[in-house]
Amino acid sequence: xxxVNYADKIIRELExxxxxxxxxxxxSLAKRILAxxxxxxxxxxxSGLMTRAFAMRLMHMGIPAYVVGETSTPGLxxxxxxxxxxxxxxxxxxxxxxxxxxxxxxxxxxxxxNPESTLGVLSDITVxxxxxxxxxxxxxxxxxxxxxxxxxQMLLIFFDALILRLMEMKGQSSxxxxxxxxxxx
Length: 185
Known about the structure:
Layout: H1 3-18, H2 23-34, E1 39-43, H3 45-60, E2 65-67, E3 81-85, H4 95-103, E4 107-112, H5 118-122, E5 125-128, H6 149-170, H7 174-178
Parallel strand pairs: 1-2, 1-3, 3-4, 4-5
Helix pairs in contact: 1-6, 2-6, 3-6
């Protein structure tokens, strides 16, 4: 099979998965973000990279957003939101920070394949995305892609779609957002 064939299969998978994005939970999340407070994001591995991309777009919108673990990240305060991307919802390094955020009066959001996971159950808002948990991707799953690739790609697509919804809700344009783009590159 060629790279073009694989790319076509991946795009078809993403199209099918996009049909299952949850509208109600997404709207609740958008309203929560616009309600105020800072947004903190966390995730491990490739899921973490997708949450970092989301934090950047929130910053471009003028919404205070931080990546957990960075040296310039302030402390979470009551009324802030911690958003965690975790396919399994069981990533051991993420669960203690979820519990800490709740104890500080933060709103906890889980973006996961498994809403019944420890993280999903603990969260105030749980958004279920299509995908395959990486250690369950054994070649018999609904994805041709390795490990958690489908979830990670859907996470980025979901975040970009959420940004578009937030832009619509705030009456924000791409041009206005570009004014907050890094200028020391």
